[in-house]
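User: Hello! I'm new to structural biology and keep hearing that structure can be predicted from sequence alone. Could you demonstrate with Serine/threonine protein phosphatase? Please show me the input and the output so I can see what each looks like.

Assistant: Of course. The first part below is the input, the amino acid sequence of Serine/threonine protein phosphatase. The second part is the output, the predicted structure written as tokens.
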Amino acid sequence: MRHSIGALVLSAVLGLTGCNSDNDNGTQAAAESYTLVVMPDTQKYSRYNPERYNAQTQWIADNYKQQNIVFTAHLGDVVDLPDSEQEWLNARAAMSILEANPATPYSILAGNHDVLAYRQSGVDINSNFDSDRTLAAEPFLKHFPASLQQNNFASFQGTDATGFNSYHLFKGGEREYLLLALDWRTSAASIAWAQSVLDAHPETPTILTTHQLLNVADDGNSAIFTDNGAMLWDKLIKDNDQIFLTFNGHHHGEAKMVAKNRYGRDVVMILVDYQSGFWGGNGMLQLVSFDEANKRLQFRSFSPWVAAIPEAERQPQDVLQRWEFEQPLDFEKRFAKLNQEVETEGPGKLEGTLAYWIFDAEHKLTSTDPAKVQFMDLSGRGNTLSLKAKAGSSGTQEQLFELLGEAPGFGHATGAARFKGGNTLGGYYLSSQAPTLVSADGQAGVLAQYTIEMIVRLAPEWQASENAWGAVFAHKPSQSQVCEHHKLDCGGGDPSLALTASSLKEFQWISTSSNGVGPSNWSWEVDRNYWYHVAIVNDGQYATMYVDNSRVMRTAEAEQHGLVSIPGGEWMVGASSWDGEVADLFRGDIAEIRIVDRVLPESDWLNAK
């Protein structure tokens, strides 16, 4: 045995008092940063080794000033056996160290090991929601009642009706944060309660903690949603822009996911749980430094217990720290205009941009359903594109649509959307009820001028018999429908606006203008498996097509005064239409599409160097 009981106690005492070495006491936080401490599952400590639990909280109590610790969040599974009074007493003793000082506030929540259903035969623990329990009998509520934190910490703001869910407000630097501590199985009523808290704090950056949200994938590294986590994402996280950070335990290991919410903003999601490791985690905490000056979060797992053991006496399993990484976070930018459509910054976002889509993984919105594919609109106008199957398609989504990691040699995409449909199998396309095109005098569905750009290539497998007239980009209403809407003397079954690939592998630009349907613009015959930049520039009189910056021969043959569309009419990427119905499908790859309400110089085009 490595240590005698006396040596263990001595180590614990050393952990309580801290030490002089930076390496043994945690890296000191930068003067302008502040720290959130995350306590993963403590169940093994409560049952087998409370000294490690005590070492964790005592280190926080001793170092909160030096480390600028502003809050501590427990992730549940406080105990191992919910009907063991001694385990609860051990947990209470450890957490009471923080309660002794109003400057060391904490949140705590129930994991599956903390509710009586865990030990009750005939009860499905996974279906035992907070509202299903006999509240008066639950030991978690007995030992960690709302009154305990209410009497100790100004950060505590209240609980839901069950007492299993709470929320807290604390300051980090000059910024106020909200923290939700949610039960491991939140009922619909509890989700509604959490939403009411968020509604009351629409501009407060929010951290969500719960016991189960992410799991570790089979590769041992990647993070994946659990069923419960998918529910929380769909019903609470993705639509509330102020939630920027989540933590959970339960599943053994560590993993990170950076998800995109409905506004296209990052939500950093962390799984951390060391209970299956040496001595149930060996006292490991996670320290999160909020470094506003350098626009980053710094994550590091650190064990106060190991820090108290002299280096010469540590065994190989006594790991002082692990899983150290940084996550970029521009605090001002991320927390500005919360719950509003977000405009991006960068070379692709210009004044007058009405819609801008990049079809790569970075700009794909996160979904808990693998079949649900959506791409954000970087213009900030909310023109989200969603993947749809053409009616009657016999092929699967996996067969007919793919997101590539391969990028063109120009533009801003790091990948592309691959459309693999055709006349035989059918296929998939992306759809939006936008963009909203508004003229300078406020007339809806009218653009006096525009520059529309697409970065596209035909697939090596492209065949005229299967893929001719499929559109890269199209407005679904027909020419006749748009002309009738705008009371113009024109018509036709073609889409009112589209870039198609003809039966001769030519790019064709079809458009309907305020002076009617004009002649199409045509490129030369293009190659398969070659990336092209296509720009259509309308100066208010003529529409001119450029392919790879070269003006094509058959273009601007008659006046075309801007373009007209039907407000609320469907726009499609990867499909054309006939008489207002989805028709021919595009076969190839699309990396970017951008619509700007003015004439752009070549120096501002997507392929500009």
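User: So the tokens describe the shape?

Assistant: Right, they're a compact way of writing down the 3D structure. Reading them back into a model, for example: The CA atoms of residues 123 and 523 lie 68 Å apart.
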